[in-house]
Amino acid sequence: MTGPTFRFAPSPNGELHLGHAFSALLNRDLAKIQDGRLLLRIEDIDLTRCTPEYEASIRADLRWLGIAWEEPVRRQSEHFSEYEQALARLVREELVYPAFMSRGEIRAHIAAQPEGGRNWPRDPDGAPLYPGLDRMLGGRERRRRMEAGQPFAWRLDVGGALARVGRPLSWREYQDDGLTQVGAVDADPEAWGDVILARREIPTSYHLSVVVDDALQGVTHVVRGRDLYHATAIQRLLQELLGLPSLHYRHHRLLLDPDGRKLSKSLRATGLAALRSDGKTPDDVRRLAGL
Ligand code: GLU
Q1: Which domain holds residue 17?
Q2: Pocket test for ligand 1, best of 7, 11, 217, 235 (most atoms within 8 A of CB)
């Protein structure tokens, strides 16, 4: 029997900080005690923000921490055609629709609602839900707009998708030790509304690439920050629609700055490069991360 497969999946759009170190070390520790594998995946679908320099610094920081991973590393920007295939399946099955409303049109639509849209539903990250008007467009009108070159994004018809699955979805969440199951968490993908799965400038999305890659790479255990807890609902739904296995999840605590805010890539003080040049050792980093 093969052991579990973990992954650390950073986006090379900035330097790693203490929070990333915590996540990477946790994945490594769990892989080690369970005799599992650790993969590194570079999530660089946003070619305007991700750079080879950041990727090189991520690798250098991880090596400095003493983390080893399997080569070759999967770099998402080299696999757009695989995400397109998954999207094509959802298009064929009419689970996604072309959404033509621009950001400005969405804002105006919401602002025109009672009380200026103040009660308009918001997603778990606080963004207003997509109005979903284009879900109702007829096939002919859709084709006409697409042929006329009107810009659009592919959005998941979340209601239709749930109806297709036909049963409530959940995922297995684990405790801090990564071994003890907390229990089944009910997935509520509708809380996100009709999310974008692909855009014109980026022919995929975080959600779509992650579920395709996790399955393709044989990942069994997803250990990542609490900020992605609710995103799991959409990912579970996509796994179900694409016939991909459901995984084990552990959403770990987030490291906070002295003001109680989540660490960010712009905060230099907790950057691994800064800590290293301050003379801190990998053991200091473990301690600072509370490991
Ligand atoms: N690439 C994502 C990030 O850097 C993490 C994705 C994941 O672990 O599912 O926040």
Answers
A1: 1-78+255-291
A2: 11
In a domain, 128, yes or no: no
Does residue 226 belong to any structural domain of this protein?
no
Residue 15, domain member (yes or no): yes
How many whole angstroms from 210 Cα to the centroid of ligand 1?
8
Whose alpha carbon is nearest atom 2 of ligand 1? Answer: 10
**pLDDT band at 262, cuts 50/70/90?**
confident
Q: How far is the CA of 161 from the centre of ligand 1 (A)?
A: 24
Number of domains in the chain: 1
Q: Is the Cβ atom of 210 under 6 angstroms away from ligand 1?
A: yes
Identify the sign of the CA torsion 91, 47, 100, 130: positive
DSSP string, 259-275: TSPBP-TT-GGGBHHHH
**CATH code (residue 44):** 3.40.50.620
How far is Cα 67 from Cα 39, in angstroms, rounded to an integer? 10
Q: How far is the CA of 73 from the centre of ligand 1 (A)?
A: 15
Q: Tell me, yes or no, whether 5 lies in a domain.
A: yes
pLDDT in tens, 13-54: 999 999 999 999 999 999 999 999 999 999 999 999 999 999
